Amino acid sequence: MSALARFLFGRRARLRWIHLILGGALAMPYVLVGSVVVGPFTGVDDVFGSLTLQLASFAVGLPLAAITSLFPLTRPLEAGVVRSLCGVEADRLAYGPARSKGEKGRTAAWFTLHLGVGGIVAGMSLAVPPFAAFLIVLPFVPALRDGRPGLPGPLDGAWGLALAPLAGAVTLVALAGCAAGCGALLARWAPALLGPSAEDRVAAAEARAADLAVRNRLARELHDSVGHALSAVTLQASAARRVLDSDPRFVREALAAIEETTRRTVGELDAVLGVLRDGDAPGTAPAPTLADDLDGLLDRTRAGGLRVSANVAADPRTLPPAVSREAYRIVQEGLSNALRHAGERVTVAVGVDVLDGHLRITLENPLAGTGPTGTVAPRPGGGHGLRGIADRARVLGGSARAGPVGRIWRLEVRLPLGRTP
């Protein structure tokens, strides 16, 4: 019973009833136009004095409603009302103007259906409650039946009068059931008539994919630049603290490296976040490349206490900009991994050369330690950086491999050049 009561009189049923009454209100101008046609055609001056002529005016007005539904704002407005009053999920509706013939046809069908069913339910909502109230109070108000020979036959007898309140209550429940059923049907049909077309779904999927790609790219940029900077600054500050009293020169160099690292990272961070600021121009700091800052990157890493040997056989100035930019981030992330995981006083070997039309980047460093049996201990932590390196390589059509080779951790990335520099 409670489920039936919610279906008939619950909040969703009431909102859908309001939706139907709005449809009836929207239908009235079309009914008036229809009466202008039906009246002269039938020769009747008072069209609204006859239920049959009212229905005829209603039938004439609905095709006019279908024509006016081609107005561009019809589908967005109807979709918004359906979402708010009928309880249809937002992602199942389309909010742009109908453009194709199919979309216009479905919008016209929905608008006609809304006004047609809404007009009938609205008319019933105006006529039935007064009649039901009359039946409910009829046995208790003699003035309503005294001297009224026009009362229906069943109401003239004692049993008729006794059952009149029940009949009135049943009539009201029937009206609520009719409104709830019509509202539920319209809510069920709304996604099919007002929902996105196949083209809309493809466009939405492409927009989501493009947005996800931008978010992933920004996440990689932030991870690589900020993560590397924090790792380098942490080690530089730690090294400076340990030799603060014994080696002031090294401390000054470490502080200078910290200053330079943070300055560059703030500039890169501003450039990345500029993309996220609605209405703001992107930041002015350019994306770093091998040609611009490979030497600086290696120097700042060495200032953190990590020994780096570099063998750069390829000329960074001849690399395509996209390859040079992604290669810089790959080297940066590889050094960050070494800073975090390789341990202190190790040497990282960085190699950049050209092999078989690909830019090959290699980073090698000793593993952090060995287990009690002499086997190589697993590399702790990490994971996100290596996935980011693999993603960068895959975007350019390249490949990335990382893992232990004996007692050495080796990262090898190949990026296609398209031509040999």
UniProtKB/TrEMBL annotation:
It is an enzyme of class 2 (transferase). GO terms for molecular function: kinase activity. Residues 215-279 form the Signal transduction histidine kinase subgroup 3 dimerisation and phosphoacceptor domain. This is histidine kinase. It holds the Pfam family HisKA_3. InterPro entries: HATPase_C_sf, Sensor_HK_TwoCompSys, Sig_transdc_His_kin_sub3_dim/P. It comes from Streptomyces rochei. SUPFAM superfamilies: ATPase domain of HSP90 chaperone/DNA topoisomerase II/histidine kinase. It catalyses: ATP + protein L-histidine = ADP + protein N-phospho-L-histidine. Keywords: ATP-binding, Kinase, Membrane, Nucleotide-binding, Phosphoprotein, Transferase, Transmembrane, Transmembrane helix, Two-component regulatory system. It comes from the Bacteria. Its EC number is 2.7.13.3. The chain crosses the membrane at residues 20-41, 53-73, 108-141, 161-187.
